[in-house]
Amino acid sequence: MSRLRFLFRLFTLIVVVLTSACATSPTGRKQLKFFPESQMAQMGVASYMQMKEQTPLSKSKVTNRYVSCFA
Asked: Cβ distance 50 to 43 under 8 Å?
């Protein structure tokens, strides 16, 4: 009986934690937020910088012209 009670409390705790991490997006949809917005922005910048370092630039003029239309 003790193990069942422990599992029930653990399940309840998980549900409480997950529901407290819920937020509403600007479009009105529900979403889970595991990180603050500022930390997500920092992680995005770090990931972008790492990708820029590891990915060589294209030497194709056609490709570069196409990409510059979106940048």
From this structure: no
Question: Measured at the alpha carbon of residue 30, what is the angle toward residues 14 and 21, in degrees to the nearest 5?
Answer: 35
pTM over 0.85: no
Query: What's the CA dihedral at 36, 40, 46, 52 to 10 degrees?
Result: -170
Q: Which residue bears the tokens 């630039």?
A: 57
- DSSP symbols for 34-64: SS-HHHHHHHHHHHHHHHHHHSPPP--HHHH
For the segment 58-69, what is each residue's pLDDT rounded down to a tens digit?
Answer: 899 998 888 888
Residue 47 near residue 37, CB atoms below 8 Å:
no
